[in-house]
Inverse folding.
């Protein structure tokens, strides 16, 4: 039984998020998702996500290929989460390419290509321009 872990904010949930979670799930038998807390986002981006942590967790938990969800409180705790959830493989989008290689050899690390032409930031920009 292979356990996969991935992390993300999953704000303004879109098809790029579905695609990475669906592909991550195919690498094993059990998919665990760390959803970044509102405070972690604030510390990184100096703004809170549009969707609350509670709503983002509810959306990700509702997906049929997601088995377990927890709150990611800090980027520096990756290894602790990997160990706590007994993950065999860490999957991330390739915007993070190389950034989490330091968790090897605790687990395998795979970076998957991002879905082109869609992001939360772009959606927010487009919506802002609508009159
Ligand atoms: N993603 C993707 N294609 C897109 C947009 C996002 O494959 N068009 C992927 C990202 O590469 C990431 C996941 O979806 O693996 C979640 O993306 P974000 O919500 O932007 O998460 P992020 O803020 O990058 O994660 O430990 C990492 C943190 O949790 C932050």
């Amino acid at each position: 039984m292979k356990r996969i872990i991935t992390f993300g904010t999953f704000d303004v949930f879109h098809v790029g998020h579905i695609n990475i979670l669906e592909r991550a799930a195919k690498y094993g038998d059990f998919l665990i998702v760390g959803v970044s807390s509102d405070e972690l986002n604030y510390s990184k981006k100096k703004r809170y996500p549009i969707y609350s942590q509670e709503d983002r967790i509810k959306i990700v938990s509702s997906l049929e290929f997601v088995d377990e969800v927890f709150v990611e409180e800090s980027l520096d705790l990756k290894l602790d989460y990997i160990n706590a959830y007994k993950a065999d493989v860490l999957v991330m989008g390739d915007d993070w390419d190389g950034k989490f290689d330091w968790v090897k050899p605790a687990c395998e690390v795979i970076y998957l290509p991002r879905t082109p032409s869609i992001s939360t930031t772009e959606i927010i920009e487009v919506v802002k321009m609508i009159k």
